[in-house]
Structures are given as structure tokens and as C-alpha cells.
Design goal:
heterodimer; A: about 270 residues; alpha+beta; 5-stranded mixed beta sheet; 5 helices; 10 strands; elongated; B: about 575 residues; two-stranded antiparallel ribbon; binds copper (II) ion
Chain lengths: ~270, ~575
Amino acid sequence: MSTPVEGSTPVSTGAQTPSGLKTLALPENASTHGPRIDALLGWSHRIEAGLAAIALGWMLIAVWRFRGAKRAASDGGTKRSIAFVLGLALSTFLIVDGTLLVGSEGYLRDVLWNLQVPAEDPRTVRIEINAHQWSWEARYAGEDGRFNTPDDVVTWNDLRVPAGVPVWVQLVSTDVVHGFSLPHFRVKVDAIPGRVNQTWFQAAREGTWEVACYQHCGTSHYRMRGELRALSSEAYAAWLREAGRQALQAYDADDVAAHWGWDWRTP
Amino acid sequence: MSVDHKQVARRYLWSGLGFLLLGGLLALLIRWQWAWPGQPVPGLAWALPESRGALTPPTYTSVFTMHGLVMIFFAVTPLLFGALGHFVLPLAIGARGLAFPRLSTLGFWVYALGGALVLVSFGVRLGPANAGWTAYPPLSTTAFTPGLGQTLVTVAVLCAGVSAFTYGLNFVVTVARCRAPGMTWGRLPLTVWGLFFASVLNVLFVPVLAAATVLLLMDRLLGTQFFIAGAAAVGGGGDPVVYQHLFWLFGHPEVYILILPAWGMVGDMVSFFSRKPAHGYRLTAGAMGVVSALSGLVYAHHLFTSGMSPMLGRTFMVLTLLISLPAEVMFLNWLMTLWRGSVRLTSPMLAALSTVVVFGLGGITGLALGAVATDVPLHGTLWVVGHFHLTMGAASFLGVFAGLYFWFPKMFGRQLHEGLAKAHVVSSAVLFLGVFGGQLAAGYAGQLRRLYDPYQYTYLKHLLPLNQWTTACAFLLGAAQGLFVVNLVWTLWRGRVADANPWQVGTLEWTCAASPPSDENFERIPVVLRGPHALSQPEVLEQLGRDWVGQAEALPAEAPAISGPQPLLERTS
Ligand SMILES: [Cu+2]
């Protein structure tokens, strides 16, 4: 079941930036779609910060200027001031929520929910993941391209993908709800017993990053950590070939626990 | 046993404050663990002798589970509704009591039973609940959490739910049926509007929580499999996601259940202490209604990563973003109320303005969680934790203290020390921003919630200094609560007797009832003549020489429409 591990590359920590700045930054991006989602997040946070500053400033000015004022207005708002509130609320809403909605919708249509992209790309790598308390078990179809056959490559907490091609993940859980996440790829989806969920991503470059579980899944939840290696296409192909050969040798038809794969679900 | 609503309120106050202390101490343990992972906690060796006082992974999971449960079900909700709601609501609408006084006493004892079960659960083998406050199955079923503690706590949550349902129903009926003559819907204080809408939400959505917990209890105790699927299910198997839908269909409105009473109080206090009528009163009340109406339609944004259909995802994204529109209207109305007022920074006002600040930041940081694409990277991180702690934690907490500082003289007939109260409010508000701001930053940098040791992940190692800084703020925040405790003890022991109307406002509890009010609340039921914010009216200034007039007080030139009783003027001026 286990596969040989080559000289392991150190996990990226995004060590390029000084530590103070890093604290307030998103995890370093490693996916081709990351910049798009990061830009949307950045925009949304800039707008939020601006709004917060304006509202807080307004409040402080009002308190400072009218503190203990001799006379207070006696009305609960005029038609004009109420129209002002409604107009301001509506325009803020349209700008702020509108930006988020349009940006989010574009990303969903083009990437997150567009499984046509990996489906149509002949280079796409398919991975089936089975989440356990407390590890990630991954299954590759092997040379024959079909899941649940003797040449399936199975790894534990060790995902390998070629850089620059779509990676299509389908996942379940054997026990409790887990959360599969690749923070550096902006990928997150629940692994739930009894249903197959899916997502896809594409590594922008070679390197090693971490797989994290973000749903509380029991005592050792915090140790449910895996590694994802983005390799060159050649290195990936070589690894899969060798691992598949070893899997065939080690294949045990009676090992019931090893047969958890499913026929790949089409969208 | 007294069934007086004021007595019930005091019982909720003391037990709510007790659980607030417990929940706060549990929070400090979580913070300790993230600043000094695995290091012994000073003074905890008696409770955890095997680890010499250090948190172990199982203890830690219990600690964060119980922190969430205790704060939501046994501290903040009981303080807002149980204490302030029970006390203020009948007085503010001119009623002799609640519509069903015995029901409210029963509700308290059901809550107390739940609270007792929570305390007992700390003493049982395998410890209290540890499946997270959301208790997602299958983790929360006996297959993965076999301890008795999880069962006891699930029953405790059900008890808290039953109690919340009873006072919700009681408040709705009381507001609808027991208002004094002349107290039209358009004259209700905003506090009452907030409590009313939140009570409607209680009546509608707490039964959904009851459904989820009862089904979960059946899975735990009777061997049913509503929420168990796949390999863990012996028979046909159920679906864990059904629980998530039920839980959040309650859980999201619960956010508004907690914040609506605070919003109402802020609306009133900003008006009272700007000495001018609330700007856009009808609009504010209407906006609270719209938020309440939408609150049940946005819940599935908690499930954006559960693999739900894109059709549902889009719908819930749009609905979730939509809810920010009425919230903005209400927020702007508060700011407009301050404008051209005569602002008095009393302790309730400082607490109300702090609520505005922390709620504003909490609301704004939630926008990115309402849209699917931006939610995905932030989902399950401390960004979410910081966001909801600002709204449900800091804003509700400061709302509770705004109310407590405001109505304390009415509850106990004594006046808390203003200086201590102000110091408490301002230091709490600043430190809340430190703690939850630190969480937002850590979450943005990717730190996941609920990790016993976040530094197992290489990409989170650099967050240790940030977490230590946040922890320092949290401990200071805990210490700042000493200011309240000292003030409370000293005032109750030998505090100054309060003026009849220390804040110079016109609502019924201040102008028509004694401090503390008699069993009957009012000597005679007041006849209400005007809205709650009659401040700085030119004719009042001219005729009475003060800037406020009681809701039931007839001006000399104003012949009372109904020949009603005279308000107790001699007590108020
Ligand atoms: Cu997990």
C-alpha cells in the first residue's frame, strides 16, 4: 500500500517575505486560479476597510462635534434626511455587494463550478480521496485509467500531481465529516460519509505544500495533515508508473479495506 | 415561588453572569493553548493532574466545544432575553406582567436544569461534550463520541431551547396583547421592537433546533440512524448533511436572535443620549423586521463547502448579500441620530456606541463570507471566528452591558459607579477589537479554527507571535471584567440610592414605575400619549423647562384624549 518517497522537498513556508508582513498576508499562492480569487478578496477587504474607516470617522466626528451641544434637533428625520439614508444605503449596497457578487459569480462560472474544464482537458489527473480519522487516503487510477483495479496507486497523506494541468478530486469520508483544504490553492470542500463531493485545481508551479483538515473531526483533528507535491509532468509520470508496478506486485484480492474506490462520477 | 417577571429576570441575570464567567475562563484556556501550546496552565494542575495542568488534545476539544455552547445557550441568550428582556419588556409597554407568568418561571427552571446538566457533564467519565458546538454527526454520535457527557450536553441544549421557546412565545403574546392603552405599535421603544422580532425568530426556529437535537439524541440513545451514513451505519444509513441543514436553519437566525435585542437597545440609547428622537424610527423598526424575515433564508451560506448544488449556492449567496441592505439602513439611522444631537457620553451610551463599532466591523468582515468565491479560502478559518465573535460575542456582550448599566437603577434601586462603568465599557471594547482583530488577521493568513496545535502546519508557524499578542489582549479583557465585578459588589453592598429617572428619559419604566417597581409594576396602568423618544421638543422645553416628556405625561396644553390616570410626576422631575 505504501509507496516510495523520493528525497523529500521542504514544505514551502512562503519565506520570501519578512515575517511581520507575512502575518497579515494570505498563504502564498501556488495555483493558477489563486490570483483571481486573491484579487477579489483583496478588493473586498480594501472596500471593507474603507467603509469601516468612513463609518467610524463619521461616528467620532459626530460625537466630538455634538458632545453636550446646547440644542438638539427635535425631529426624527426629515423627508430629505431619510431619502439620504436610503440612497446612501442602496448605493453602498450596490457597489460593495455588487462587486462581490459579480466577481464571485465570474469565478464560480469559470472555475469553481465549471467541471467542464477538467472533463474536457485530456491531460487531467483524476484522484479519489477517502478521508479517515486522521489521515488522507488517495487513490490514482494507474496505467489502465480505471479506478478500483489492481494497478490503483494508493497513498497516505501524500498527494502528487503534475504542475500546470487540471487536477480533479472526488472525495468521501469513511467515518466523520472532514474538510479537505489546500490553503495555498484556495481549495476547500467537505468530505462527507455517504456522498461523493468534487472540486478541481491546477498547480501553478512545482513545489510542496500542505493539505489541511478544516472540519473538527475528533481528538487528533489537528494532526490530519498531508503533503501535496506538484511535480514536473515527467517526474509525475515516472512516479505513477513505478508506484503502479509496485501496487500490482503487492495486490491482495482479499484485502477488503483496500477496495474503496468508485467508478469515476461524471458531472 | 415568585412568578414576578422582575424576579425571574434577576434569576436569569445571576445565572447568566455565572455562565459568562465559565465561558470566559474556557475561552482563556483556548487562548493559552495557542500562545503556549502544550505548556501547563498555571493553577490548573488540580483539574488535570495527569498532564500537570497542560491541555491535552481531548481536554482541548472539550474546552472549545463547551466554550461555544455555554456562551450561546447559557450566557448571552439568557442575559439578553432572560434578564433584560424579562425585566424591561412588560415595564416598557405598560403591562402588569408577562402574558403567561407561570410559563416564564417554568422556562427559567428548564434553563436551570440544562445549566445543571452542563455543570454535571464536566464531572463524568470521558468528560463533557467534545464534538464542537455545532455537534456535526457522525462525530457527535456514540460511534465516535461515546461519553455520557455528549448526551448530557445535548439534553442541556434541548432544555435551553425549550426555555427560549417559552419566553419567545411569552414575549410575542405579551407585546401583541398586553400593551397599555395608547401604546400603539408605532410608539414601542426600539428595545421592544428588537426583543419582539427576536422572540418571533425564537418561536419559529428554536423548534428546528429541537428537531435536530432530538433526532441526534435518538441516534445516540435508541440506535436510529438519521445522521449516520456510509461505513459507520450498520443498516441503511442516513445523511449527515440533513443535520447540517437543520442545525444552520436554526443556527443562522440565532445570530439575529442574539443581536436584535442589542440593536434595539442601541437604537433607543443613541436617541436618549443624543437628546433627540431616533432618526427614521419607522425605517429602523422596519429594517429590523426585514432582517428578521430574511434571517431564515440565508442559512445555507454555512454550507457553501458541503458540496451543495451550484443552484442553491447562488441563491443563498444572493439572499445572504441582500440582508446587508436593511442592516445598513439601520446602521446609518444610528449615525444620523447622533448628528445634530446633544451627545452625552454616559456609560450606557459608551456601551451602545461600542456596540455600533464592533457590530459594524463584525458585519463588514462577514461580507466576504457571504459570497461563495471569497468564502472558500476563508471558510473554517479564524477569520470566520473573528467575524462572528465581533457580532455575536462583542456586540451582544456590549449590548448586554449597555442594558445592564442603563436599567440597573431600575432593577436594584441603586446607581452603579459611572467612572468604573465607563472604564469597564471602554477597556472591554478596545480589548475586544484587539482579540477579535487578532483572530481576523490569523484567519486571513490561513489559521484554521479548532486546532489543538496550529503549528503542526508549517505554513502557520509564523503566526505564533500574533497569537501570543492576541492572547495577551484576551487575558487583559478578562482582567477588565474585574472593574464590573467590583462595581457590582460595591454598589449592591453600599451603593448610592438611584434617582427616580437618572437618565432623564420618557419611557414608561422610568416615568410611571417606582425603582425597583412593585409587584404590580404600576400603581395605575399608564395611558400612553406619545412615542418613546420625545426629546428636545420646543413646546416641551417651553412648558416644562426640561428637554424630555414622559410617554404617558400630559402637557399642560394637552388635554388627555382618554381620562386616564396621571403619571407619577413628582417622582420624575
Ligand atoms: Cu479531519
